Description:
single chain, about 400 residues, alpha/beta, Aspartate Aminotransferase, domain 1, Aspartate Aminotransferase, domain 2, 2 domains, four-stranded antiparallel β-sheet, about 15% strand, binds D-malate
Amino acid sequence: MATINKNYxxxxxxxxxxxxxxxxxxxxxxxxxxxxxRLGIGNTTEALPKSVIDGxxxxxxxxxNVDTYTGYGDEQxxxxxxxxxxxxxxxxxxxxxxxxxxxxxxxxxxSANISSIFGNDNxxxxxxxxxxxxxxxxxxxxxxxxxxxxxxKNIVYLDSLEENGFFPKLPDKKVDLIYICSPNNPTGxxxxxxxLKRFVNWALKHKAIIIFDAAYSFFxxxxxxxxxxxxxxxxxxxxxxxxxxxxWAGFTGVRLGWTIVPMDLITQNSKKGELNAxxxxxxxxMFNGASNIAQEGGLAVLSKKGQxxxxxxxxxxxxxARLIRVGLEKMGLKVFGGKNAPYIWLKTPNGLxxxxxxxxxxxxxxxxxxPGAGFGLLGEGYFRLSAFGHRENVKQAIKSxxxxxxx
Length: 407
Ligand code: MLT
């Protein structure tokens, strides 16, 4: 008799963004003529630049000719793309061998799947607030334990509070896998070199592994802030980095990302290269490689022109972030993030809960955002706005908040 994976039963409600979509739909059913302005999910909106479209087009046209047609490719990714990514890291001063790079269909998938190469007895640490995928994927694997008072018993939550710049505190007990996201989703906080150094040194000392989500690193303009964890000495021995073309190049729908598993990475019971081989084994078994069209597009993003043109779209979103930040500050709201990061994290006014503020913002200003409570216990009392959106939409949203939100 078949049985279910009971771990699913301990997952909380719906996935955060599905819940927001559901509530917005209910609002729109009741307010048929209302125009809702969406600053909720971090979903790219701007058209791709010509150089990247040409790359994607090249991928399509290759399929039209029997001499250039390709079917399944290497599960680890197109050799040219892995080499181009390796060069891109090299230009950043970071040494990554193409064999350490695994191209995938995105950072969300990889960040959910990566823990499968680690034993189920590993203790997982996440920041609080946290991108929900890190938690839920580990809960599904059985590493969560009982859910009580807003937290899973077996997961260690590292408080990311206003007083420590929303960067997680170092663990004060044994943990084995530590998820860090910088620039951070949801708080928009960006780790400094020193903050990352402390985690890398802690991980090296305690033989823990850091899973570093760098999906938003392209938004870092400040040269002093690290864009890759491998900028920190020793990180090759203790960190996996996951990144993506989604937010960098508007590939949220195209789907393309990558994960780096360095040869030097070791755990308590593994040798050099073993984790790389395990991730390779996992991918070759459960993944058939990223789309050849998307990978051709990825190569175009990595070209000089592609990087310049994609950078211009990043600048566009960052101007949105600035408009949101300044617009809210003018109203006297307490605002964080939005600098070197596309998320704006605000303290809800008058002690409102995150979901109360969600309803208020939707009803009064017709703006959809993301309740901080959806990212963890310590997200309660905060709210996230995303800078991904058309400029006109962002301007209208800020205007509507300024004119209609009663605070
Ligand atoms: C978000 O809004 O947090 C992101 O869009 C989620 C994601 O990238 O999966």
